[in-house]
Amino acid sequence: MEFLRTLGITSASGLFGLTSLVIGGFMILAGVGVISIQQVTVKQGRATWIMGIVMAAVGVVPALS
Q: How many domains is the chain built from?
């Protein structure tokens, strides 16, 4: 977990934020149809990319605190 420390992630909230940001980014890209992974079923559409934006925003909040 040393690589997380080099990124500045030293707490559980930071790890949660990074995870939310990554999942949110994936959902945004999948929602607008940029990426498609066959093993993961994600429907394209407005609801998916809006949820991705929400997850990404939740991921940014711990970074700002």
A: 1
**Site of tokens 């940001």:** 21
By the 10 Å C-beta count (0-12 exposed, 13-18 middle, 19+ buried), 59 is classed as: buried
- As a whole number, mean pLDDT of residues 20-32 equals 83
pLDDT given for residue 65 in this prediction: 62
Answer whether 63's CB lies under 8 Å from 14's CB.
yes
End-to-end CA distance of the chain: 22
Domain containing 38 equals 8-64
**39 within some domain:** yes
